[in-house]
Amino acid sequence: MGTTTMGVKLDDATRERIKSAATRIDRTPHWLIKQAIFNYLEKLENNETLPELPALLSGAANESDEAAPAAEDNHQPFLEFAEQILPQSVTRAAITAAWRRSETDAVPMLMEQARLPQPIAEQAHQLAWTLAEKLRNQKTASGRAGMVQSLLQEFSLSSQEGVALMCLAEALLRIPDKATRDALIRDKISNGNWQSHIGRSPSLFVNAATWGLLFTGKLVSTHNETSLSRSLNRIIGKSGEPLVRKGVDMAMRLMGEQFVTGETIAEALANARKLEDKGFRYSYDMLGEAALTAADAQAYMVSYQQAIHAIGKASNGRGIYEGPGISIKLSALHPRYSRAQYDRVMEELYPRLKSLTLLARQYDIGINIDAEEADRLEISLDLLEKLCFEPELAGWNGIGFVIQAYQKRCPFVIDYLIDLATRSRRRLMIRLVKGAYWDSEIKRAQMDGLEGYPVYTRKGLYRRLLSGLCQEAAGRAKPYLPAVCHP
């Protein structure tokens, strides 16, 4: 039985020859077959003499009187979809091949990059220590921030309690109704071992917050006040529970201010001004989820336009390097942002992305395409490439792309972006981050029954590898401007 590849029926030996040849030049079999077809068509269209044509024409003449054989019913699933896939370049083929590459293959080639020369490693360690010490002392000396720092030191992010606090701090700022806030507090606090933290911190704020978390945790974990002691019931009672909830809400909002610069762009710009005066640079993100409807997408589009106007005015002509920028979440601009809707994405989402980019160029502020789930990476790269070759954006270096370092494809994405920057004759702003989808990528791969994962399965490993990727990016930074964050 022959194997059907790209609509051409081949025997197994020929199929293996194609695969072997494609591997030698680091391309896919589909790409090689398409190139062969294009090459042959070009020769025919140029009326070139082909040695096999006379024999074929002679055979066709001899068989003209014979009945034509019945057409084979050769249904090929997904053939129409496969024909839409454009031939991949070497760099894009490498990205695709590394999607769920085995860690035993992916890790060794990165380990050497993760080892800095000893003098540089010592300098980096000393710089990190100095920065951390200064920031810690600065926060301790400044009221509200100092209280938050004490709370974070007590509840480590490696503990269940610390993770629960971070979830609350980030989420409570975006929840407008009391019922949902109470439900979230019940969910995150009910399982915490808060009693073990009582009295351990010298900060009155931390100890007070711990008692509040202990009381609230017991209340929400039992959902039954009769199980508590009479004294606790007298303190909290029917009117006390909302009071404790309010205390937790206030503590979490205070802590959330350390991670969310502002609830609006105007507020964020105002809060960032002091650090900007000290030399810090900001790229603003719009907190939100993916659009589920066309109305959602339109609302996000308007929000992005307003944000670019606000950031552009605040930049006041400082340019893409010295002024602030913005990150765009593409899934917020279209409700069907997936490879299965490729044509719609290119026809409907791309004009919105181009419009926002042109608006950013008017103010000369940087605009980054934000990182999202692993299965959206390649369509994001397609949109980026199309954007880089827009004549209206020629000569402008404000386009950027966010790369997630924990993905196995990260080094190959860097290679591709360097190649894209060279071909489009521009500098790209590269923002290298750890990423925010690690847990969901692991879970999704397990639910789908896949053999591998698009991310490294050991968090400690990819954190160490990040330093190597930063070093590599910095060493090859001539065509683009790397801006590394979340190290």
Any overview of this molecule?
This protein is mostly helical and 487 residues long. Among the domains are: 135-256, no CATH class; 265-482, TIM Barrel (Alpha-Beta Barrel). It has helices at 12-24, 29-45, 53-62, 79-84, 90-97, 103-106, 108-111, 118-140, 143-154, 160-172, 178-189, 204-222, 230-256, 265-277, 294-315, 319-322, 342-363, 377-388, 410-423, 438-447, 459-475; strands at 3-5, 8-10, 283-284, 325-328, 367-369, 399-404, 429-433, 481-482. The strands form 2 sheets. A 6-stranded parallel sheet has the order 3-4-5-6-7-8. The chain has a two-stranded antiparallel ribbon with strand order 1-2. Helix 18 (377-388) links the parallel strand 5 and strand 6 (399-404). The protein is globular, with a radius of gyration of 29 Å.
List keywords for this structure.
487 residues, mainly alpha, TIM Barrel, two-stranded antiparallel sheet, 58% helix, globular
CATH fold-level assignment of the domain at 265-482? TIM Barrel
Q: Give, in order, the helices and strands.
A: EEHHHHHHHHHHHHHHEHHEHEHEHEHHE
* Strand percent estimate: 5-15%
Shape: globular
How many runs of DSSP E, i.e. beta strands? 8
What's the alpha carbon Rg, rounded to whole Å? 29 Å
The description of the largest β-sheet is:
6 strands, parallel
Order of strands, main sheet, comes to 3-4-5-6-7-8
Q: How helical, in percent, are the residues?
A: 55-70%
Helix-strand category: mainly alpha
Amino- and carboxy-terminal Cα gap: 53 Å
Low-confidence stretches: 1-5, 63-71, 219-241, 481-487
Mean pLDDT: 75
